[in-house]
Structures are given as structure tokens and as C-alpha cells.
Write the C-alpha cells for this entry.
Amino acid sequence: MHVLAIETSCDETSLALVEIGQRSSASPARSQTFLPNVKVLKNIVSSQVKIHAPFGGVVPSLAKREHIKNLPLIWKQFLKHPIIKKKKVDLLTVTVGPGLEPALWTGITFAKELHENYFEKRIPLVGANHLHGHLYSFLLTQKGISNFQFPISNQKKLFPMISLIVSGGHTILGVLKNLNSFKKLGETKDDAVGECFDKVARLLELPYPGGPKIEKLAQKSSFAKATEDKRERVQFPSPMIHQKNYDFSYSGLKTAVLYYLRDAKYANNTRMSRKKKADIAASFQGAAFKVLVKKTMRAVGEYGAESISIGGGVAASKELRRLLNHETRLPQTEAKLRNPIQFIVPPFEYCMDNAAMIAVAGYMAHKNKIQHPLKANGILNL
Ligand code: KG4
Ligand code: ZN
């Protein structure tokens, strides 16, 4: 089926047209390992990063204004696509939460208008959970290529899968027994990891969004090339790392960087060198990721996982990907696993907010008859 999706939960305006198919299988055993065949036909993302950057974060009223301006412009480009022209769309879906409510409403209102005026209510319109989008983004591959041409379709076993969702608003670890059964194992008790990157970036006088800037700066650190255990010479805490649960906490790490910078400033009374800043960025990044990797790998052991998937803006980090890739190839002493397990990452473009992942989330909601009210729900969770 063809799914048209709309995403406006934060500071990206996005529309996507995705072809999603179901492998026909009558066997109940097969339905446990059900994987839809997903092919992105068109995905346009209009980022508002430059507009929000001077404010150091997303301003909801500006986000709303930009979405209202961008949605019709993106739609105009979709109108050229033959499937849209011929109205061969089978499902319309829109993010209803979580996110900024004024921003969410723009997408919902636009979806309702399309549903009524363009599609004349001939197709279903369903609400999608943004977090399901990140959760299922591992099913997406490069535009025009079906995920069945991608190695994951050939894997004998993918589940149980440990899923790590790391974004500007969320840090969630969970286990997927199959595509329809997600169990949350833990989440952040305060700041999300992406939010922590953004706040620390501000302390280091780097522009919003902070994650990519910190990653780039950290690559210039002399520690970046050091051996694994010497990568964080400035000792920052990795909160909750020793607690035998799957929760996280990032506000203490941000405060530790704040105090370190304050003390360094008073001690030297000079402007910090770029090299020193790079070392702080690398050390912070190392401390932030250490706890994510540790708890993910512990969950792999406890649940006998066959794979790990990551999603959300922070999953775009090459360093986080490198660390998890390294771990999944190591002999699993703690986990006592067969090796190696699969580590599945979406292409970079589907880590940050996008409507292609919302198409999958909407498709799954429709398939499983989950009805989210078509109202903005800023605190919708998994
Ligand atoms: O998923 P996303 O686009 O929006 C939310 O749903 O929150 O994630 C945005 C977050 C921002 O906090 C940004 O700083 C972070 O993802 N991010 C990164 C990297 N790229 C983006 N964090 C760390 N390293 C990166 N390379
Ligand atoms: Zn997101």
C-alpha cells in the first residue's frame, strides 16, 4: 500500500510517500517475525535549524509559523508525483505526539484538510506516535530501495531486538519481542541525551543543535585517537552506570561540565584554547555514551537478544555507532552470547525527524488497529 505521512512535531517539516507491503504468510509462527516490505518513494524534510539557532533551542511559536509556511510548499512538490496525482494513496497518517503541541497541531490540521479536500475522505487518516517512528526507523533504507533488498530481510533471526531510542526529547531502552510487542526497560529520569548534548554545546559556545557540533569538535581531540580506555581524560561522571536498572540520568553530567568549565576559567583566567575545548567535548561525549552502551549490552545479555537497533537524532552519531558496533563484535563475556549479533542502524537521514518513519509508524498503528485521537498530545509515550 502507499502511505502518505506528515511530521511536524518539532523543528522539521516533513512529508513522505512510502510503499509498504506485507509478505503474505498464513503461518502464525511467521507472523511472530513479521517484517513489512518498506520502500521510501519520496521524503522531503525542511529543517528550521537556522531559524531557531540564534535562540539556542526550538521556539514553539516560530516552529508553528514555519510549519504553516512550509507544509503547502512541500505538498506542491508532492503533487508532481504520479501516485499522488492519480490519488493512489491508501493511507494518510500524521504525527499526533509527543512533541510541541502548537507544532503538532499544524500537521494535524493540514492532514485533516488534505483528507477532506484532496482525498475526499476515501482513505483512512490515522494518528502516529513519533516514538514509534524512531522505533521502526531501522526498517528504512535508502530512497527507492526496499528493505527486502537489504540484508535484514535475509536474517534468520532478528528478535528479540534491543532498541535504543536516543533523541532530543527521549532516551528509552526497550526490547522488541517481535515488531508488535515492545516492552520498555528504562528511560531517562531527567534530561534526554540529545538535550544534554544541546545544553553542553551551549556551555562550549557552540550553536544549536549541539550534537553534531560536539561530535565534530571531539574528532579534533587528541583523545579521539587514543585507545578505548583512554578516550576520556577529563573525568566526567556517567550517571546511573552502576545501577542494575535500565534507567538513565543526564542532568548531572551537564552540571559536571558546567562546574568543570567554571573552575577551569577561574584557574586560568584566559580564554580556553580550541584544543582544550575539543578534549572536553570528547570526554563529555565518551561519558554520555558509556552508560548507553553499557546498559544496552546488559539488556542484550539479559534478554538473549539477536540484534540491536538504534533510532533518533543521537543515533546519527558516528561515535555512538562505532562504540556499539565494536561491542557487538566483541566476545560477549558478560552476555554469554553467540557472536556476532546484528547491529542495525537507519541511514543518517532517517535518524533525525522525518516523515518516512512516521509512514511506518502510521502503517503499524493502522495494521494493529491502534487509534490515536487526532489531537496534539505533547506527552504521548511508548
Ligand atoms: O530525533 P531528533 O531529530 O528530534 C527529536 O525527536 O528530539 O533529535 C535531535 C537531537 C538533538 O538534540 C541533536 O543535538 C541530537 O539529536 N543529535 C546528536 C547528533 N546529531 C544529532 N547528538 C549527538 N551526536 C550527534 N552526531
Ligand atoms: Zn524525533
